[in-house]
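Task 17 of the worksheet. Students: predict the tertiary structure of the chain below and write it out as C-alpha cells. Keep your answer in the requested format; marks are given for formatting as well as content.
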Amino acid sequence: MDHKINDAFEIMEQTFSKFEQVLSALDDLGINYVIVGGLAVHHHGWERYTKDIDILVSQLGIQKMTESGAFVWEPSQSRVHIISMIHQPTKIKVDALRSGSISGFPDIMSVSRSERDRRIASIEDLIAIKCLRGDPSDYGDIYRITKGSLKEGRMVDWDVVKSKVSDKIWQRIQSDVLKYL
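Model answer:
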C-alpha cells in the first residue's frame, strides 16, 4: 500500500481516538450534548472525514466546558450561537451550537437521538439542525446523509424534518436537496 495512504489511515485513526477522549471529557463533566456534525454524518451512513466535533449543548453545558479548563474558547472562530473551543489535551476543535429558542437551534431535550448511539442526533434532527445552521456545506451533507441512509435501507421521515424547520427552510430543502434524490 502507498505510504501516503497508510499515513492518511493512521491520521484518521488517531483523530477518531482523540474524538473519543473529547467525548469522554464531556461525559465526565456531566454535560448533556448531542453530536450534530461530521461525526453524525458518518454515523448515519456517509463516510466523511472530519477534524472537529460539532455538538448541540445548553448554555450551562458551555459554561461547564469553559470552567473545567479542559476547553478553551476560541473567540476568533466563534459566531453568535456557535461557540468554538479547543479541547486542550487533544487540541481537537469543538463547535458548541447553543441550544434554545434564542439561538434558533432546538432545545437539547427536544432532539431525538439515534437508536444505535444515544450521543448522536437522529437523522431527521441532524438534517433539521444542519438546515438551521445555514452553512452551504450543510446542504451537501444533507444530500449525502440521505443517500447513505437509502443505501443502508433506511428512510428519512421528511414529514418530521418539515415539522422542525420554517417554511422558508423547507422550500430550500426541496429546491436544493430533494429534487436531486
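Marker's comment: Helices lie at 3-28, 38-43, 59-68, 123-133, 136-151, 158-164, 167-176. The domain at 3-180 is CATH 3.30.460.40 (Beta Polymerase; domain 2).
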